[in-house]
Write a structure and sequence with these properties.
By secondary structure, the chain is an alpha+beta fold. It folds into 2 domains: 1-48, no CATH class; 51-163. It contains 7 helices and 4 strands, in the order αββββαααααα. Strands 1, 2, 3 and 4 form a 4-stranded antiparallel beta sheet that branches. Strand 2 and strand 3 (26-34) form a beta hairpin. The two termini are 19 Å apart. The model has no long low-confidence stretch (mean pLDDT 76).
Length: 163
């Protein structure tokens, strides 16, 4: 419900049901978000599992960045886990970027979404290329942690909402 309210406050059109749907044990509602200015839209399910993985990564992004930093350092001493850390890092970067872009979209800051993608992909590339030492791994993890905390902070989202 808060997502719908925030979306309407950001100037987008929302179409939803008057009451929840109960279908084979699932309770929830579907809704459509339309941005009449740009023509973009989203079809979402409230109360379901859609986006649950993206939400998990987004809500735990700082912890994930910290754990990936620790795992990266461990992979310097145990090389066999390095490939798993790299794969999970790439996956995490995409999931966290999608979460932050959704937050920016709901707040009315579509213009920042491209910049968010750019910074996250640059960070991933730099981290992959220069992550060969303990110091660079720590710095890359810390900078990623600071950036993701900043872009998804309430102050950035409030600025986007115009509050």
């Amino acid at each position: 419900m808060e997502d719908i309210r925030n979306t309407i406050n950001a100037g987008k059109q929302v179409t939803t049901h008057q009451s929840q749907i109960n279908f084979k044990g699932w309770k929830g509602s579907g809704y459509i978000i339309l941005d009449e200015r740009t023509g973009t839209g989203a079809y979402l399910i409230d109360g379901g599992a859609n986006g649950a993985m993206v939400t998990f990564f987004g809500e735990n992004q700082n912890l994930i960045a910290l754990l990936l930093g620790i795992a990266s350092i461990a992979s310097l001493f145990i090389p066999v886990i390095g490939l798993y850390v790299l794969i999970f890092s790439i996956f995490s970067a995409f999931m966290i970027t999608m979460y932050n872009n959704l937050q920016l979209y709901y707040a009315g800051c579509e213009g920042l979404m491209g910049i968010n993608w750019l910074f996250n992909m640059l960070a991933l590339t730099v981290g992959s290329i220069f992550g060969g030492s303990v110091a660079s791994t720590i710095w890359t993890s810390l900078l990623g942690w600071i950036y993701t905390a900043g872009v998804s902070s309430e102050s950035v989202l409030e600025f986007c909402r115009g509050n």
